[in-house]
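Ticket opened by: R.M.
Priority: normal
Category: complex prediction / small molecule

The reporter submitted a protein together with nicotinamide-adenine-dinucleotide and asked that the result be attached to this ticket for the collaborator who will pick it up next week. Submitted input follows.
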Amino acid sequence: MNNTVHRYEPPANEPICMYTPDSAETASLKSTLSTMAAETIEIPCIVGGKEIHTGKTHECTSPHDHQRVLGHWHAATPEVVQQAIDSSQEAWKQWSETPYATRMAIFTKAAELLAGPWRDRINASTMLGQSKTCFQAEIDAACELIDFFRFNAYFALNNVYNDQPFSAPGMWNTVDHRPLEGFVFALTPFNFTSIAGNLSAAPALMGNVALWKPSSTAVLSNYYLMKLMEEAGLPPGVINFLPGSGREITSTVLESPHFAGLHFTGSTAVFQGLWQQIAEGLPRFRSYPRIVGETGGKDFIFAHESADMAALATATVRGAFEYQGQKCSAASRLYIPRKMWPTFRDEVAAQIGTIKMGDPSDFSNFMCAVIDEKAYNKITGYIENARSSSDAEIIAGGEASRETGWFIQPTFIECKTPNFPTMCEEIFGPVVSAYVYDEDDLEGAIDLCDNGSPYALTGAVFSQDRYMADHISKRLRHAAGNFYINDKPTGAVVGQQPFGGARASGTDDKAGSALNLMRWVAQRTIKETFNPPIDYRYPHMG
Ligand code: NAD
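Result attached by the on-call engineer:
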């Protein structure tokens, strides 16, 4: 199946549209935005290529304008989930035998559609449904997903299928990289449209079939992605789209002996619960399921006293507040040397004072709203706790408004103790906390950073002293799966900074890399002997 030799050149990263005022791409995106903002669409489940309207509907609203209903999505019932399992198993028969070149062609076409005719629609639905600025939508929903599609195809061929064993004279050894027997369950988060697409598309590229449960707060863009993949030629049943309750859908999924893998991105607590549920179901499953999960973070910036102040302040503002801090990689705890603190504090506070926040259709905004009421209540709860504590001081921001949308000001907190909750727990909002350390105890401050939270996703060191940058990088070796020197800890690019974390942040199977793709194949080794022996006796027997 996979033995045909193909040549496939390394892809380039998709260029980012900058949406400058008065440009043609800005006019085009704005026009799509206003058309889509005026629509209210029906979003069905898609099973075996058929749309199913279950009648159990929920609203898709805009976080920045929560009275605006963009669509009604139909939640999957247990019967529909079972139909999806059956249809995936039917599709598996042909898809698992489909040559790599055909699978690659479908996802490469998906990349072309997204780069061209679908770009505005996917970006606009991400802006409207998940409250991203045009730039944040572009780097996620368009560029990162295009890169996932193209780079995965390249890595699959060059790093997985072409990884073949040596053959001694007289024999021929091959490894058949088979898809898993059964289906992969892709359970996806709200905050990146690209991740939502990739969690089902990456296993499907490797010949697997999938059930895709999108986040209830990202159904709009995710539905359009599903339609895009269908237009790209994805056969019915290969990916089945099942909006609905994560808990309910999971319980039907894990009843099935065909459950072969979980591809998850989301919060740590949910992932840990899923792993435990899977362990309990082991006797039912035909194979040991593959479990791949990228989860929460408490990402840090550690400043050495030699840090460049302007670069540090800009990295803090961009790293902490872009997409309202709702990136798993968002900078949320800072360790600042005492002698830098007064200038740094005033500089960051001044920059925060200039940030514009509002509706993403106004392209001059830097921030929009947080995703929903639950997130709003959680984040403002952390801010109120800081306001009332003598261990913390709100330096900038701290206000919020729920009137039109779920808006929370970019908030900068100084924590007097390194273990204050906002320094340790994932808040997932526009809140950054700083702990000021004594530069005479650098090693103690590094220890605080290393042990300050259970997570290890991203982190950055700022230092113009290169020996110190090296030293701090070595001391924090296990504190982050993606580590930055003199750069913000967000914005990993597919093919350039493979992304994922360890400790409580996930299984570190680097999305958009060969490592991730390898989790979706099971190797069969085949040895063929050209001249088999015809005498059982060995030479030493005389
Ligand atoms: P979430 O854990 O609330 O939801 C993720 C998915 O799981 C959703 O589809 C949701 O419906 C489903 N779900 C929720 N509870 C469930 C349950 N009990 N059983 C089964 N399914 C359930 O996460 P979110 O709010 O969508 O995303 C934010 C989280 O994702 C943050 O913690 C963030 O750090 C993390 N994240 C991590 C990465 C990474 O690469 N490490 C990337 C993006 C987001």
